[in-house]
Design goal:
Low-confidence stretches of chain B: none
Strand content of chain B: 5-15%
Largest interface: A-B, 42 and 58 residues
Structural class of chain A: alpha+beta
Distance between the termini of chain B: 52 Å
Number of helices of chain B: 9
Helix content of chain A: 10-25%
Radius of gyration of chain B: 24 Å
Shape of chain A: elongated
Oligomer: heterodimer
Helix content of chain B: 55-70%
Number of strands of chain B: 8
Order of helices and strands of chain B: HHEHHHHHHEEEEHEEE
Mean pLDDT of chain A: 83
Shape of chain B: globular
Low-confidence stretches of chain A: 1-5, 18-28, 253-262, 413-418
Chain lengths: 586, 263
C-alpha cells in the first residue's frame, strides 16, 4: 500500500527548495527597499542599528548594500548582520532580506542618513533619507533622570482644541525605561470620557515600542490603544485617568527581588493623568441645515421611484458617508407636500474602525405615501458639513426630487373611498334625540333594589317553608294557628242555627275548642271550670269574668225560662270578642 | 277620596314632566333644522356653533354628530371632525346608516392627516372588554347575570317546596348562583372601566405629551392633530388642567385638557 500523504509532503518540500533556490535569480517584481534607524535621538557614544530591508515576491540576485559616509555616525563593519524571512499571506509569498548595520554616534548635532542605493536585477532602488540627532550626554539632568518614573502611561489626544463633533484620536501610550520588559497589558474598566462619544479603534498591529527622549531620559514609547472621541458639547472637557494593568519584568543589573525566584515578573496598575480638552462651538452655517456632521463627508439623496401608485410607499434615501463623527449625524429634515403621508423614518449606521480613524456610512430612509394622485416635488435642500481641517463649512445641495402618483388600477373598493374631498351630505329632517348624560351602571343606585329583590324573595320563601314545616310537624303549633278560624267557623254555624240550645252548645264548643287549641290541651275531657282556670293561669292579670259567665250560661241554658234569638246573637258577638281577647294572651 | 286626589296629583306631575321633555326635544329639533339651513348655505362655522348649542342643552343624536363632523371638516378642523365622527360611531352604534357614513367620513379625514400614529395591537383581554362595552354593554351583562341569579333563586325555592326535583339540582343551582355573582361583578367591572378610561382625539395641530403635569415637564412625545389616545380619569383627578393619557403606541404622559376632546 502506497502512503499518498508521505509522497505529497515530499513533493511539497522539493517545490519549496526549488522556489528558494531560484527565487533570487528571477527578475525583480514589486520590490520595495526601505531603511529604518532604531533610534533617531542618540547620545554621543551610543550604538544604533540601521536596518535596510529588501521586500518583494520575486527579485534577482543583488549584493549587500554599501553604506555611504554618514555624518555623525561611524559604521562598525564587523557587526553587520543579515537575515531572510519568508511570509505567505493572501495567496502570495513575500521575501524580506534584512541587513543590520551597527553604527556608533560620534559628533553632536542634527544629521541625516542619505538615501542608500540598492541594485537589484540591474535596477537601482534608493531608501528614503532618515533625519536623526546626536545629543550631548552632558545635557542629561541626572537628578531629573533618577527621579523620573520607570514606567508610566499617558493619554495623548491628537487635537486639544477641537470643535463640537470633531473626531479626536486619543492614544493610550506606555512609556518605560530601558531595562524594563513589558510582557502584556490590559485596559481596566472605569475610564470615563464625559461629554464625549467614544469609539475604540482597531489597532493595525501589535504594539511596538520606539525610542524617545523625555527630559533627557530615554524611554521606550509604545502606543497601546486608540480611541476616537467626539465632543458633544462646547467648553472645557476632561478625559478622566485611563486605568491599565501591565505585566512587566525589571532586568536592571543590581536589581534583584530575592522573592521572585529569578522570574522577576510583576503586575502593575497604571493610570493616565487627566487631560483637559477645550472644545469650541461650531460656527453658524449660511442658508443651510446643520445635521451635526463634522469631518469629510459626501451626502447624496435619491428617491426609490419616479412613478408610484396612490397608497404605495416611496422611499427617500439620504446617504452620508465619509470620515468623521458618523454616529452623531442627525437626519436632515425635509418639507413634504401636505398630501403626502409620512411614516417613521429609519436609519442605518455602518462604522469602520480601521485605519486608526472612524469612517463609515449613515443612511436615513424617509417613507412617504401619496394619498392623492398628482405630481409631487420634494424641494432641494442645502446641508452644511464642517471640515475641521479647513476650519470652514462645506455646503452640499441635495437636488429637488420629483415623482408622480397615479391611481392604482387594482385598488379595492374600500380604498377608493379615500377621496380628495369629503363627499358626504349632511343629514337633515327629523332626528332621534336622546339625553347627553350617560347613566353608568356603577352610578345607578336603583339597580341595588333590583339586586335585593331575589334575596327578599328567598327570605320570604325560606320563612314560609319554615312555617309550613312547623305546621306539618308541630301539632300544638298547628292547632294554635288554626284555633281562631275553627272557633269562628263554629260561631258562624251557631249564628245560622235557629235552635237556641244548639246555638249555645256551639258557643261553648267554640270557646272550649279555642282555649284547648291555644294551650295545646286535650280536645275533650276538660270542664268549663278547668278551662277558665287554665286561662287564669296563662293570663293572671286579665279579667275573664265574661268567659266564666258565658260558660255558665251555656251550661244552664236548657233550664232558662225565656231565651230569644237576639240573646243568642249577642252572646255570639261576646264569644267573638272573648276569642279575640284570648288570642292576645294565650 | 284622599287616595284618588293623590293619584291625580301624581299623574299630573308625570304628565307635566313628560310634556316638558317632549317640548325640549321639539326645541332641539327646531334648532337643528335652523343649523341645517346655515349649513346648506355654506355657513359651516355658524352651523357648527348652532349644533354646539343643541348639545349644550343636553340632547344628542346621530344626525347631530354627523353634521357637526361634516361642518368641522369643511372649516378644515380635521381633528374636531374626527372627534365628531368617532362620537357618532361610539354613541349610536345601532344607527347603521349614520355609522356607515361616519366610517366613510373617518376614512377621508384620517387620510388627510400628514402624521399618523403607530398603533400597538390590543391585548385579548382589552379586546374582550371593548366588545363587552360596545355589544352587550355593561347593562346587558348585568341583566344577563341578574337572570342567572333569578334562575338560581327559583331553583332553590323550587327545591325547598319540592316543586322542582331532578338528580343534580344542587349542582345546577350552585353553578347558576356562582355564574350570576361572577357575571354581575363583571358588569360592574366593565362599568368601572367605562368610567375610568375614555378615548379622546387631539384637536390641535401639535401638542406635547409630558412626563409631568407642568408646562416645564420633560417631553415624553409629541401628539399631532387626529391622534387618538386614552384618558385615565382616575390618575388625572389630582391635576385639574391635565389628563394622564396613553398614546396609541403605548407611551404614557400628561397632556393639557385644552388640547384634546374626550369622546
Amino acid at each position: 500500500m502506497i502512503k499518498i500523504g508521505d509522497k505529497l509532503r515530499f513533493v511539497s518540500f522539493i517545490v519549496f527548495i526549488l522556489w528558494i533556490g531560484l527565487g533570487f535569480n528571477v527578475q525583480a517584481q514589486d520590490v520595495e527597499v526601505k531603511a529604518t534607524l532604531t533610534e533617531t535621538n542618540i547620545f554621543a557614544g551610543e550604538g544604533v542599528t540601521l536596518n535596510i530591508e529588501v521586500i518583494g515576491s520575486q527579485f534577482g540576485t543583488f549584493d549587500r548594500p554599501t553604506l555611504p559616509d554618514i555624518p555623525g555616525l561611524r559604521w562598525l563593519p564587523n557587526r553587520t548582520s543579515q537575515s531572510t524571512n519568508y511570509t505567505y499571506a493572501n495567496n502570495r509569498t513575500s521575501v524580506v532580506i534584512s541587513y543590520g548595520f551597527q553604527l556608533i554616534a560620534e559628533d553632536v548635532g542634527s544629521f541625516k542618513i542619505p538615501p542608500i542605493p540598492v541594485e537589484i536585477g540591474g535596477k537601482t532602488y534608493n531608501t528614503k533619507a532618515i533625519p536623526f540627532k546626536v545629543l550631548d550626554p552632558k545635557t542629561i539632568d541626572t537628578g531629573k533622570a533618577d527621579s523620573s518614573p520607570d514606567i508610566y502611561v499617558r493619554i495623548e489626544p491628537n487635537v486639544t482644541n477641537p470643535v463640537v463633533g470633531q473626531q479626536v484620536i486619543a492614544t493610550v501610550v506606555l512609556y518605560f525605561k530601558a531595562g524594563i520588559e513589558v510582557n502584556s497589558y490590559q485596559a481596566l474598566a472605569g475610564w470615563k470620557a464625559e461629554g464625549f462619544w467614544k469609539e475604540e479603534l482597531e489597532m493595525q498591529r501589535q504594539a511596538r515600542s520606539t525610542s524617545s527622549i523625555i527630559n533627557g531620559v530615554r524611554y521606550q514609547r509604545a502606543e497601546l490603544l486608540n480611541y476616537a472621541i467626539f465632543p458633544t458639547k462646547a467648553g472645557e472637557l476632561t478625559l478622566s485617568p485611563f486605568p491599565i494593568s501591565v505585566r512587566m519584568r525589571q532586568n536592571r543589573s543590581g536589581f534583584r527581588d530575592p522573592f521572585s525566584f529569578g522570574f522577576g515578573q510583576e503586575n502593575k496598575e497604571l493610570n493616565t493623568l487627566p487631560v483637559t480638552i477645550n472644545v469650541q462651538r461650531l460656527p453658524e452655517p449660511k442658508n443651510a441645515d446643520l445635521i451635526g456632521a463634522v469631518g469629510d463627508f459626501k451626502i447624496t439623496r435619491n428617491i426609490s421611484t419616479s412613478k408610484a401608485f396612490v397608497g404605495e410607499s416611496i422611499e427617500i434615501e439620504t446617504v452620508v458617508s465619509g470620515t468623521g463623527n458618523v454616529p452623531l449625524i442627525n437626519k436632515p429634515t425635509y418639507i413634504f407636500p401636505s398630501a403626502l403621508e409620512e411614516y417613521n423614518p429609519q436609519e442605518n449606521t455602518q462604522i469602520n474602525r480601521g485605519n486608526n480613524i472612524i469612517s463609515g456610512t449613515k443612511t436615513f430612509s424617509d417613507i412617504i405615501i401619496a394619498r392623492n394622485e398628482g405630481e409631487f416635488i420634494i424641494p432641494e435642500k442645502n446641508i452644511a458639513v464642517y471640515d475641521p481641517n479647513k476650519k470652514s463649512f462645506k455646503y452640499t445641495t441635495l437636488p429637488a426630487l420629483h415623482f408622480e402618483a397615479i391611481p392604482d388600477p387594482k385598488a379595492t373598493a374600500g380604498s377608493q373611498l379615500v377621496e380628495t374631498r369629503l363627499n358626504i351630505k349632511p343629514k337633515i329632517g327629523l332626528a332621534q334625540w336622546v339625553p347627553t348624560s350617560t347613566n353608568y351602571l356603577l352610578n345607578n343606585s336603583s339597580l341595588f333594589i333590583w339586586l335585593a329583590l331575589p334575596f327578599m324573595f328567598l327570605l320570604g320563601a325560606f320563612g314560609y317553608k319554615q312555617y309550613s314545616d312547623k305546621m306539618a310537624n308541630d301539632t300544638g303549633f298547628s292547632r294554635s294557628q288554626k284555633a281562631r278560624q275553627k272557633s269562628f267557623d263554629t260561631l258562624q254555624e251557631a249564628s245560622s242555627t235557629t235552635d237556641i240550645k244548639l246555638g249555645y252548645h256551639l258557643i261553648q264548643a267554640a270557646l272550649s275548642q279555642f282555649i284547648t287549641d291555644k294551650c295545646n290541651l286535650p280536645e275533650a275531657g276538660l270542664s268549663n271550670l278547668q278551662l277558665v282556670q287554665e286561662v287564669k293561669t296563662k293570663a293572671p292579670n286579665s279579667d275573664f269574668s265574661d268567659l266564666q259567665k258565658l260558660f255558665n250560661k251555656c251550661e244552664t241554658i236548657a233550664y232558662a225560662p225565656d231565651v230569644s234569638q237576639v240573646g243568642l246573637t249577642d252572646d255570639i258577638e261576646i264569644a267573638k270578642e272573648l276569642i279575640k281577647k284570648l288570642g292576645k294572651v294565650l | 277620596m284622599r287616595n284618588i286626589s293623590t293619584l291625580i296629583i301624581l299623574l299630573a306631575t308625570v304628565f307635566t314632566l313628560g310634556s316638558h321633555g317632549i317640548l325640549a326635544q321639539e326645541t332641539a329639533q327646531v334648532e337643528f333644522d335652523k343649523a341645517n339651513i346655515l349649513m346648506e348655505k355654506g355657513d359651516y362655522y355658524n352651523a357648527l356653533k348652532a349644533y354646539h348649542l343643541i348639545e349644550a342643552q343636553g340632547f344628542r343624536s346621530s344626525f347631530l354628530y354627523l353634521n357637526m363632523g361634516i361642518s368641522a371638516a369643511q372649516i378644515d378642523s380635521l381633528g374636531l371632525a374626527k372627534y365628531y365622527f368617532l362620537k357618532t360611531i361610539k354613541h349610536f352604534p345601532n344607527d347603521t346608516e349614520a355609522k356607515v357614513e361616519a366610517e366613510r367620513a373617518l376614512l377621508f379625514v384620517n387620510s388627510q392627516f400628514s402624521r399618523q400614529s403607530a398603533t400597538l395591537p390590543k391585548l385579548p383581554w382589552d379586546k374582550a372588554l371593548d366588545w363587552l362595552k360596545e355589544v352587550p354593554t355593561a347593562y346587558g351583562v348585568f341583566w344577563f347575570g341578574y337572570l342567572m341569579g333569578i334562575i338560581a333563586c327559583l331553583l332553590l325555592a323550587g327545591k325547598w317546596f319540592s316543586i322542582i326535583t331532578f338528580k343534580k339540582l344542587n349542582q345546577v343551582t350552585v353553578i347558576f348562583a356562582i355564574s350570576a355573582v361572577l357575571i354581575v361583578t363583571l358588569a360592574y367591572y366593565v362599568s368601572y372601566i367605562e368610567m375610568r378610561f375614555n378615548d379622546a382625539v387631539v384637536i390641535n395641530t401639535e401638542t406635547k405629551v409630558l412626563q409631568q403635569p407642568t408646562e416645564t415637564g420633560t417631553t415624553e412625545s409629541f401628539a399631532f392633530e387626529g391622534y387618538t389616545l386614552t384618558i385615565d380619569y382616575k390618575l388625572s383627578k389630582e391635576n385639574p388642567d391635565w389628563y394622564y393619557v396613553r398614546l396609541s403606541n403605548g407611551q404614557l404622559g400628561w397632556i393639557k385638557k385644552t388640547e384634546v376632546k374626550p369622546l
